[in-house]
Design brief:
The complex is a heterooctamer, with four copies of chain A (68 residues) and four copies of chain B (259 residues). Chain A is mainly β. Chain A is built from one helix and five strands. Chain A is globular and about 35 Å long. In chain B, helix 3 packs parallel to helix 4 and helix 4 packs parallel to helix 5. The chains are: A mainly beta (68), B alpha/beta (259).
């Protein structure tokens, strides 16, 4: 099935968010996840199963945004 | 004396009055050293999409000791209240605290804040329990509104982001200090050490900068300079400077001059 | 980095670039503490008649550790070359070194230097083997002449003595820095920490002050502030500040903005 | 006899500069002495005897003369 | 050259770039003379309740020749968009034109504009066909929004109303000039002639003032001074000034020096 | 009011307070027009060797109406008192009056005056009956000495010759105005109209410039601008400006606000 | 009957706005009138009769409101 | 014979200063003349005869020397 991750479509087999993050090598403690525009609390990664057409935003902290 | 002179934001107290960004450094080790030398306890970070395809890149958090530094996620790059609010929610989920540096830019060229959108976003975020530190212009009316909304501090710019022009309008900053009770933190414009000292001498509670340090020829030396300058300016503010006069009088006793 | 960044005057090197006066303090203990906190290594003192009738008064030297501090006798209060030269000779006899802070005032009201008399006095004193540090105006021509005469440094005023107006004319100071090779030390005018930082950021080799510290509401806090400010300004000068621009660019990466 | 010390006349018996300084309780190491407008080197205090009408300037260091 | 250098606002063109207020004068004759000497063609007036009980007081219009001057009613003293809109509607009915000087104040102490309310009022008034000249802060983002709404000009303050501090932040004024296409008129802050000249030299299209003239010891002399200063500044702007340099070169030919 | 406000130098009175140079113009007609538009009555000229071999060149005096303008010969390019004195003697013989603009330069790079040589030259020239207008630094002590020698005015620089930096140190100019009784004329540094206005607002008696006008993109427009600016600044000085305040009060009556 | 004029109550007999303005000596060409919060066009002064409780705002131009 | 005029040597026959100025086309009223470092008053041009080795400086006014 197809999902959209950070704007790019990806083909995956049905799996939980936790499983997906592992599959792409992302440490769940270091990111925030938005599922179809709503924040997905870390506690719900495990029982949340990704569905066809889901839109995932996975973000983390990067350097920047301070001001001179 | 500085011992008991803490900066208190939303009930949390900090010894350093300098806050620094994490952008524009050559590499992570340089960034870490610079932050160390700056003495900052609050460090702003941006929120961005994880690069799925290429996971090689190290993460900022591999380098920043979150026990030692308070991370202040910012909404840099947001041009609408909605984007900023959404970014703050993600930041809270990704991080550990309710602190956010709220900025809503009005224009890509000047990076001036859009205060109309800023006020909308601040209203929503305060309701959702965020501790909001808004980047704004040196406008006393907007600063008062941000305080009334419930922001934990106000962060007027000294000059446009990255301009290095220092505190272009100390008069407005002084009026803001007379107008609000929350901490006033100058954010943007500081180009060199004296700029930071001047901000503190005006009575500001803190200074936030990034390019001023990261963009210097020697970021480590400038980080140390800013550390000293903020402390110098704060001490001078508390010490009570001499009045300015057109002329003055010698500091030597006149009695007993040889003839 | 400051480790190897020494101020060298006439072959003697100093770690601190701040020189302080000894006038206008409430009492000797306060003076000693302030000097201690300022980190200064060079301390200016005036030369005055001993009070024969009343010997009760303590002497300055009972309080100042001459092993720790280099005393720099000054000719404060002299209005002619002759008086200044005579005072320097007495100072050398009373003291231990050839260092003198030469000033010849032109007018009791403004305490501006009389450069014509100053040049005469400097010529005589250099011939007699003194290490002359002359207090002068921010006049590049006079500074060049003083260097050519053989003065060990030049000490242009930032603003009138005791005025607290800071560096009124940074342009002239910059021209002086371009014109002479001896150390340039701003003497007079510094009112608060940022003034001292600005002097150092211009590229000056040091700053001398008295009233700025002694006249502050809290001289000890201001002494510490000046200590930090001079170091901050020097570090910033060496670090190479960012250029000033009318606007600038965000310090956050634009790629990866959430949509 | 009469001498002028720091502008004031003083009546003393003939004595050396060293003796005079002691008589008024001045530590010779802490001062500089000018005798009739010429510097008197410390080494010459002992053998220099004060004469009628001599002008003595005795100075020391005091706080002051720095610049704000 | 000034002949063809007109100020054009909403299709109407004016020769003078100075606009003046009508408040704070000793009496009507002094006001009339001052306006005459200022050379102004646009004169701002306030809208107030007629005093029913005492009709003795003369009316402003008994003194101002409305054929000669364009009256610009203002909303001085309004603190909400609604009050300002209501005042403008009354002004249009009382007067002859659609021109209004829109101001919505944020605070009685500083008289800074409340840009949030200002934007609301401007939106309504433009829809109702008014020619809106809004008094605002030196905020490029707000000025751009006012232009986009359809305001005929923007009138950023140089400094707080009545402060006489001049153009506190020429950098922002310059950015505003780069940002909007409508006329930029500095409104508030001008204290003396050079302030007005500086505003014009920055490239502003006009200057509006009241207290600077009416509050001077000799309002008539200051009115003439402002008249000359605005023209001087405009001419200098168009003439293209020499570049600033740290030093320069003599303006005398070097060849043929006598030996 | 300006009618009775004359500039009086050595008993001769002038209506215009602007003096202009004659160097750096494209051609004589442009020079003549610019001088005309500037309204100047005193015009400085240099003294140079006649070119014997080529007599084709027109002479300055073919173009300048000496009935209309007071020629002020200068010693531009002289670096010693002797050269300057010799030049003044030649100037007096070549011209019609005792007026000389005395300058003795200290250095070809900055064109700063050498006050030591200047004082020597002034002493000789006053003895020889010259009316001496000396170009000097903004040094109150030197200005007082020049007055005591018998100079008819003092002409401190606002900034280095040709720098266009304006009045770099208004504090010193103010002190000079408090110190001497002869006219104080700012000479050098003026880059644009507001610089000239500021000099006059400080209370100076006049302004002398050349490059500021001749070096502008449009010298004729700038000449007119300077003419207006000097008059504006003088009028503003005499009018008595409003005090500067951090905030102020509305210029509209508060009574009768609509509710 | 009672009306409110510029915040103060006034007792008048029923009359047109034109009549009222004349009664208080106001030149209609120099003012603007708001009747119960709506602008009253000058053309309607004559046929508009004041009613019990009407709120009138009558304003004119005064010196002020420029900015220094 | 040889004289030095404005630093350059010139060969002339003995003549008065007036004659010399005419010979080089200079209007005497527009210049000042220095003869061997001393000012030569205009009144003396006629009776002053140039001698071998005389140093003449002939100057006039040119544009310049004002200050910006």
């Amino acid at each position: 099935m197809e999902i959209i991750v950070n704007g790019e479509s990806k083909t995956i087999t049905p799996m939980s968010v936790t499983a997906f993050l592992e599959s792409v090598g992302i440490d769940p403690t270091r990111v925030a996840v938005e599922l179809n525009l709503d924040i997905l609390p870390k506690g719900e990664y495990k029982e949340t199963t990704l569905r066809e057409g889901d839109r995932l935003e996975i973000v983390h902290f990067v350097g920047g945004g301070g001001r001179p | 004396m500085s011992a008991n002179d803490k900066l208190v934001i939303a009930g949390r107290s900090f010894t350093s009055r300098l806050m620094v960004g994490t952008g524009k450094y050559a590499d992570f080790p340089q960034m870490v050293q610079a932050i160390e030398l700056s003495g900052a306890e609050i460090v702003t970070v941006a929120v961005r999409r994880v690069n799925i395809s290429d996971r090689s890149k190290e993460s900022l958090l591999d380098h920043l000791d979150t026990k030692k530094y308070t991370l202040l996620p910012n909404t840099a790059g947001c041009y609408t209240a909605d984007d900023a609010v959404r970014t703050c929610r993600l930041a809270r989920e990704a991080g550990l605290s309710d602190f956010v540096k709220l900025e809503v830019l009005g224009d890509e060229k000047t990076l001036f804040p859009d205060n109309e959108e800023l006020l909308k976003a601040a209203t929503i975020l305060v309701k959702e329990g965020f501790t909001v530190l808004p980047y704004t212009t040196d406008d006393p009316i907007v600063c008062k509104k941000l305080e009334d909304i419930g922001c934990a501090a106000v962060m007027p710019l000294g000059a446009p982001i990255g301009s290095g022009l220092g505190i272009r309008n100390p008069y407005n900053i002084r009026i803001i200090l007379d107008t609000v009770k929350v901490p006033v933190i100058v954010d943007a414009g500081v180009g060199t050490a004296s700029d930071a000292a001047i901000a503190m001498e005006l009575g500001c509670d803190g200074v936030l900068m990034n390019t001023g340090i990261a963009g210097a020829r020697d970021p480590l030396a400038m980080a140390e300079a800013m550390n000293l300058a903020v402390r110098a300016g704060r001490l001078a503010y508390r010490a009570g400077r001499i009045p300015k006069k057109l002329y003055a009088t010698a500091s030597s006793p006149v009695e007993g001059m040889i003839e």
